[in-house]
């Protein structure tokens, strides 16, 4: 609660230090009341107050420092009030590290039915039971106060891909108005659990460079603790995603963290670090893991392939995670074939371990001014397919 | 590999010390090459080479010393040869404690189709793909040699309940002949992984006291490292199960361990300890856990009950397991409602913890000559139902 900067009447509650840059790649430290988060960092996704199949102590073990909770899901189930009565999301789910919560905007866009946007907010039907609900900028801040996340996100509209320029312009001006209302609501309130809560804005604008630029500039003008780039990785070609990211990071202030929402593959992450991104979240490591696809230092590996039936080597020989230290490809393949729950546990532990190792390694490379060479080397193996024991 | 007793040409490979008795209750230590197993002991079930949703390190943490693997399941998938090439079941599944494997007899009876029993062995169709297979007494010993279990079981026939006296007599004489062939096959072979393997016989005889007695006497005459009681908990009234157990333990030698297969509820276990049983295995703690039913020191608790929605106390306040130390009833209920895999992980960890705590407490009570009083106290709460926070 100390050492914050006070500027234009706004308390900057998040400490972010940019330690070193290599090209556009950035190594920093983001400090919350739960501890330091070295950046670049990957944020495992705990949608419903749990990272699927991974216990909090295992998250710590694989090197997670910050996880993501989904306001939309937690609002619908178990309900924000339950979590507030539990003493906040950290206590509810027994996670001592940092938590970032999204605002629900993206889930309203991707999951709910019968969405109705007005200036006031967004009305939607629950994907669980069809019941009617309404989120306003003020309401999502209040909910995130009750969740007690270390980083809150503003309410935004995520436009689909493709989308008309007209729609993207109108939507973006709504998103900016909502961001301002979120900030105002934030300044009116206080944290509930004696730990500071920062607020990030979200740059939108579809795939239109000028709208993206305007969005970024307007939000920077409003001043937030950090800036996310939203509305990407929603179906557009990768090159467009990269160029939109670059347009944003050119404008966003160097001294604030940048978070590319919902991204992505290991390759996406390395390319985006190279364009100045600090934070990422994605369901890919856990979802792919549950589908028997492992990320390894030698490439992707589908453990169900017959060639692994008698392969007694670990999934990734250079990995130090619980899965790789104790179990063979043959055993894990058996667990998947036999539909054992433990298959999903071991796969999720490994894939998160891999992602967090990858991003730690990226940070080291930046600190040692060799990010470009390191990235080129990694990109080659990341796209490979591990086919059998002697790959 | 030392200190075994050699009698009648048979090497007793299992060290069992009976330390103390209290009434018929027995406290002992069963020594395998993987370590000491205090008895009475509960054996978590790892059917397919994994205790469902519980990692080996978590088994250790909850106090498991010996687990069970199913020869029938492992034979069908991944196949005994894969496990042998992995270096045995312990290495395959990364479990450093002891393993007991059943012979497959019970699964052939309960799972497979088109069973055909002959003097030679049993033919059956796989419950997975309908393929034809045959188990003989010699074959199940060879398979268990390849699995490398610390305790092997003989091939037996488990008769259904009810079953005619004639059938029970004939079946039992087949079971005894098979037990003899198993022992002979065992004496012809050697362990494959430099760790001794003991062999337990299985008393059958349905619910006919005289057949049970004859079965027990015949098997004791043949001499085994330990004796199991099979064919119970298959639908017969509990009182019959208890009286059959008692008939067997009256005859079985005091200096050998007794194992009541597939039993059971906490109440069943306490009653059977009181009748001289040392070992138990059952899927109940993990299966009930996956179905949201928790065993606690205050009784059974169905976590899905609405009354737990805002109950922020642990499942069992006196329990020291990971689940109870870190999570509330409200949180675990939410995980079940939201169908999170972690619900099953946390429930299985707790229920195994409870079973192993219960049996450790039983042992302490025996050592302190207060088993009867302790059991009476426990039986009262075990049958209770935890309804809400203030129970």
> What's the overall geometry of chain A?
globular
Q: What's the mean pLDDT score of chain A?
A: 94
Q: Which CATH architecture of the largest domain in chain A?
A: Alpha-Beta Barrel
Rounded Rg of chain A: 21 Å
Q: How many β-strands of chain A, per DSSP?
A: 18
Summed up, the domain count of chain A is: 2
Interface with most residues = A-B, 39 and 39 residues
What does this structure look like?
2 copies of one chain form a homodimer. Chain A is α/β, with parallel strands linked by helices and 391 residues long. The first copy, chain A, folds into 2 domains: 11-282, Queuine tRNA-ribosyltransferase-like (TIM Barrel, Alpha-Beta Barrel), CATH 3.20.20; 288-382, no CATH class. Helices cover 41% and strands 20% of the residues of chain A. Chain A is built from 15 helices and 18 strands. In chain A, the strands form 5 sheets. In chain A, strands 6-16-15-14-13-12-8-7 form an 8-stranded parallel sheet. In chain A, strands 3-4-5 form a 3-stranded antiparallel sheet. In chain A, a hairpin with a 2-residue loop joins strand 1 (5-7) and strand 2 (10-12). In chain A, helix 7 packs parallel to helix 8, helix 10 runs parallel beside helix 14 (341-367) and helix 14 packs antiparallel against helix 15 (371-382). The termini of chain A are far apart. Residues 1-9 of chain A have low confidence and may be disordered. The A-B interface holds A 48-50, 52-57, 73, 77-78, 82, 85-87, 92-94, 309-310, 312, 322, 326-328, 330-331, 333-335, 337-338, 340-342, 344-346 and B 48-50, 52-57, 73, 77-78, 82, 85-87, 92-94, 309-310, 312, 322, 326-328, 330-331, 333-335, 337-338, 340-342, 344-346.
